[in-house]
Amino acid sequence: MTDHIPVLIIALPLLTAFILPIVGMINTRLRNILVFLVIAAVNLMLISLVQRVSIGGEVLHYVVGAADPLQVIREGLDFPIRIVLKIDGFSLFMALISGVITFVVFLFSLSYIKEGERKNYYQLLMLLIFVGMLGMEFTNDLFNFFVFLEILSIASAALVAYRTDRKHPPYAGYKYMLVSAIATSFLLMGIALCYAQYGSFNIDYIHGMMKYTLLDKMALVFMLVPLAMKAGAIPMHMWVPDTYSEAPAPISALLKTASMASLYGLFRLSFSLFGNPLEGGGMNYHTLGWIIIVMGVLSMFVGVTMALVQNDVKRLMAYHAVSQTGYMLLGVGVGIAVHAQADGGSAFKLFGRVAMMGGIFHMMNHAFYKGLLFLTSGVMARRFGTRDLNRMVGLAHRDTFTTVAFVIGALAIAGIPPLNGFSSKILLYESVYQFSPLLSIIAIFVSVLTLASFMKVFYSAFMGPERKDMIIDATPVSKGMILGMSILCVLVVGFGLFPDLVVGTIVEPAIESLVTIL
Amino acid sequence: MTDFFLYVTVVLLIFFGMVALIYKRNLIKIVIALNIIEAGINLLFIALAYRPNGTAPIFTLAPALGELKMVLPTPQALILTNIVIGFGTTALMLTLAILTYQNNHTLDIRKLRGVENND
Amino acid sequence: MFTVEKIFTQNTGIIWYPLLLVAIFLLLICILWIWGRYYFRNDYNKNTAQVKPFNSGNLDEINYPIRSGNLYWGFKKALESYFTFIESLHKGDLNDYMVWLFLSIGVVLLLVSGGLL
Fold first, then answer.
1. B86 belongs to a structural domain
2. Which of A242, A374, A400, C102 is the most exposed place for a label (fewest CB within 10 A)?
3. Has residue B40 been placed in a domain?
4. What is the pLDDT at residue A492?
């Protein structure tokens, strides 16, 4: 049974998703319990893998459909066939993020989405997004990666356009779908270029055969740039505020995690597929690292300055999502740039590892505090019937819990100690300073501007006199919403208070599995 | 020589699709442009898998093959998957275009920007 | 086992104990509270205009907060040219998205392949 956990994690939510509408027709309560059980079971399975994969340093392989699923290469063959799932530290790290956020989003939307609003399909698509993220993170097969990315994109686009009776959501969904479709088309072209040379889709096999020809470089670019677009890096970030702001609030939190899965793909492909920079001299990895660094720094700066002038609360938060993605790109970009240096990896040991650690730890922290902020923005937008900050005032008088949650999230995103945003940002500041002091200074400056723009939201929406006439929907925040937000609050504060525990348990193995060259 | 023309067709299809994506302003035409790019990529896969004078990749034919070659089966299976995915994408995008037209009474993306007045 | 403190000490000598920071913060709050109970002024009167926010002479019940659109006005004014430029790039035009994607692919391709393409 334990051998089959990798495929069960993907298959269980996928199969449940398609029986949901039937169960929903019979009894809606039963459907909620079913979805809860499935998400909780997947989370438990993920946590049960932490002991083996993260702490034990084991790498789990699973060949889907084979007689012996644990045997990657059959006798008589010298290359792997069939779809291979591979779980190492980094996959598990990302899957834990997806699992926690999906669980929280499910709790939050239990009462946030009303039963009359086609909730069967809402939960179906939510589970499909979950499957897409898990599949992208676990697969070791390029084409399978593409298929799960498409599942993720289609489900996300349908959920962005979920409120079809309103004016803008269908067009936002159209934008999301177009961006995803064009990005995945180019990704597929890169995959085709890889297949043309090596005749296989298996990431480890291609990595072993890699010859760094011109076609390989083209394949690298055709894979990395579209994934950067899906992750929302500058200059391909303009779709992020348009789509995140129109989606229902819990879905914005889920979309953020979904774009994090694309970021996982970017890091995974640049290391596990193309990365053997210490031996293979054909590819200029220093340039690649600097490209990612420049993308990251531009994302940080432009994202935060655009956020500062927004008056729409969810657009503001979406621009911050762009800005925070820059930190992750910066950290891992520094790692890639120094990994390739001719000094035999001594600079990498000195600070490159810490920079990557900061960047990847920031992914987890960002998913938690940005998820929390998007959830509170849902409460704000529902109370006042608008997302315009000019028409919000005095929410702190009635929603104390939401206020506390917002303050925790806002302080965490600005990197105020002792919350979790600081614990990853300090790793970045320290290590990037040794690489290039200017980049570190820009990162600190961006944090200050982040705090300024969240001060603006806090001042406009929560402070001020109580105005009962401006409140449209006065239903109290339900228990599910409070439970969802408090889980994230506990995680945000807890990860800030015990960063070394988290870094040592799951982040360090993630880096190890990413940079270890087979 | 046929190979060469196949790859030229692939490049031209993708190029025309990209040009249409940059210059066309109608939501339906953008969907068509996307389909052209997808067709180009499907053709690229098929062209990669093709072997001149090859037979169909059927397992029972394999022992009697002798001198003959088979075309590669895997990319064809993948292209079937991709065609189905493309069908789903197109259907979803056209649905959203219809809904956009119902809510905004236009298909022109210049009138649909929706950034300034977002309520 | 890896700990954050070790890395920090190795790099710049900063030691980062979040729990210690929280403890110091709580201690400071306690000191301030005890000190404030004895030395802060207690000559204000509740239920008078003394405890209400100052509204430039307007004595209505509602005070008039600055709308969020007007916050950071000076910042925006000082960087006006930057903001006009950067906002002109964020008009939400689908064709722009595509142009940026194709441009980035081209530029990154040139850089990664060393300009030999």
1. yes
2. A400
3. yes
4. 92
Kindly identify which residue of chain B lies nearest to residue C99, measuring between CA atoms. Answer: B22
Mean pLDDT value of segment C87-92: 83
- Element holding B65 (H helix, E strand): none
φ, ψ of residue A486 in degrees (nearest 5): -75, -30
Nearest to A284 among C87, C92, C112 (CB): C112
Asked whether residue C5 carries a pLDDT value surpassing 60, the answer given is no
> B93 vs A315: CB contact, 8 Å cut-off?
no
B54 sits in which H/E element: strand B54-55
pLDDT for residue A225: 92
A222 CB within 8 Å of a chain C CB = yes
Please state at what angle helix A420-435 crosses helix A437-457, rounded to 10 degrees: 150
Structure-block tokens of residue A43: 């989370």
What is residue A294's predicted lDDT score, i.e. its pLDDT?
A: 92
Rg (CA), chain A: 22
Beta strands B69-70; B54-55: pairing state: parallel
**Domain annotation covers residue B113:** no
Closest C-alpha to A301, from A457, A445, A416: A445
CB contact under 8 Å between A222 and C112, yes or no, is no
Tell me if residue A312 falls in helix, strand or coil. Answer: strand
- Type of residue at B36: I
Point out the residue among A182, A283, A417 whose CB comes nearest to the CB of C101.
A182
Query: How many domains is chain C built from?
Result: 2
Is C45 part of any domain? Answer: no
Alpha helices in chain C (DSSP H): 4-11, 18-39, 73-78, 80-88, 94-112
Q: Is the pLDDT of residue C4 over 60?
A: no
The answer for residues whose C-beta is within 8 angstroms of residue A4's C-beta and 6 or more apart is A62, A69
- A346, A487 in Cβ contact below 8 A? no
Distance in angstroms (rounded) separating the CA atoms of residues A427 and A440: 11
Residues 6+ apart with CB under 8 A from A201: A141, A142, A143, A144, A191, A194, A195, B74
Which pLDDT value is given to residue C9?
47
Q: How many angstroms separate the CA atoms of A239 and C90, rounded?
A: 9
Question: Measured between alpha carbons, how far is A439 from A441 in angstroms, rounded to an integer?
Answer: 5
Query: Which chains, if any, share at least 3 CB pairs under 8 A with chain C?
Result: A, B
Cβ contact C101–A284 (<8 Å):
no
The residue segments making up the domain with residue B90 are 2-57+66-104
Tokens 């995959």 found at: A191
Alpha carbon dihedral A259, A264, A265, A266, in 10-degree steps, equals: 90
| Calpha distance C51→A441 (Å, rounded) | 42
pLDDT band at A496 (very low <50, low <70, confident <90, very high): confident
Q: Is A59 left (phi over 0), alpha (psi -120 to 50) or beta?
A: beta
CA–CA dist A446, A449 (Å, integer):
5
Please, which chains are in contact with B (at least 3 CB pairs closer than 8 A)?
Answer: A, C
DSSP conformation letters of A463-489: SS---GGG-S--PPPPHHHHHHHHHHH
Structural Rg of chain B based on CA atoms: 20
Distance from CA of C64 to the nearest CA of B (A): 24
Chain C residues touching residue B115 (CB < 8 angstroms): 90-92
Phi, psi of A326 (to 5 degrees): -60, -40
Q: Beta strand pairing status for B54-55 and A84-87?
A: unpaired
Q: Per-residue pLDDT for chain B (119 aa), expressed as one digit of tens each?
A: 677 888 899 999 999 999 999 999 899 999 999 999 999 999 998 888 887 777 777 767 666 666 667 778 888 888 999 999 999 999 999 999 999 999 888 888 888 766 554 44
- The answer to whether residue C62 is domain-embedded is no
pLDDT value, residue B64: 63
Closest by alpha carbon to A324, among A274, A265, A368?
A368
Which residue segment(s) compose the domain that C31 sits in? 4-39
Q: Exposed (0-12), middle (13-18) or buried (19+): which is B18, by Cβ within 10 Å?
A: buried
